[in-house]
Amino acid sequence: MIPWIHLDTAQVPGGGELKLSRRGNEFSIRLGHAELMNSRLSGSEKALATLALDRIKDRSRPRMLIGGLGMGFTLGAALEASPPEASVVVAELVPAVIAWADGPMAEVFGSILSDRRVTIVQDDVAALIRAGRGGYDAILLDVDNGPEALTRSSNDGLYGVEGLGAARAALKGGGVLAVWSQGPDKSFGARLSKSGFVVEERRVSAHRAGKGRRHVIWLATKAPMGLPGAGKPKPRPKRATAATRSPGPSAAPGRRRG
Fold this sequence. Notes:
Elements: E1 5-11, E2 17-23, E3 26-31, E4 34-38, H1 43-55, E5 63-67, H2 73-80, E6 87-92, H3 95-101, H4 106-109, E7 118-122, H5 125-130, E8 136-141, H6 156-159, H7 161-170, E9 171-181, H8 186-194, E10 197-205, E11 214-222
Helix pairs in contact: 1-2
């Protein structure tokens, strides 16, 4: 068995350390003993983008905001599914994660950071959402553990009533808020509905080959308040296969991802 090699350590604002390690061609980012991201487990990160972008595929110049750079899988999938005139803003709170993308993990990222459609912003995604004011066609959140915050207690604000209201206000009409989570959360689905979204919950595989544990992605579409269906969750499909999904930082229990 090839041993893990520790490459770097980064401080998380508000406390905690992220540790980047490598074993052969495999990369891992951990918070303490919990693995947040692994380069072998990209299925649900890619699905976060492909499922969301399918909702706005008729828009020729979509503007997107991604919360969490991670290992770049969500960003890469978003670029593949986007037209040439799209624009993608990626908010990453931890400066070292951005540095890793252009350093030790450059082979994982490839050329996506040099794509002219991409802008990387070192900031809290919540701040960009609050400043959005109806400017985004899609907001993709791959932050922390999902609604069950792990790395930063302040991330709870993203997933509470106030944060969801801000996300709705930052979206254009018919825009979509897509949220990744390591597992189901009934109360979060209810909050999305009460916040004026038409909600669908999808289960997708963490592994790009469609195997292993499954994660949850909420697809919440902004509809005018009072429109039939607004604020009511749509029936969840019984099964989402690897073909329907595609997967920072972050696929084990308690990971953060990107």
